[in-house]
Design brief:
mainly alpha
Amino acid sequence: MRQQEAKPLIEKLHDWLTKQHVLPKTKLGEAITYLNNQWHKLIRYLESGQLNIDNNRAERAIKPSVIGRKA
């Protein structure tokens, strides 16, 4: 399912990223640089059916311990 539906979208995203020419110090430039640097982690999602695309489970697990903290 991931190979059929998600892979074409991720390939389109990668094509778009490689065509962008923005200043690296802008917010968009920082976001594009970050995504390019993390790309190998993103495509692991396509390779393994056991990996989730989000980290909601981990976020929920740590939430109780951080709710009581002061800002």
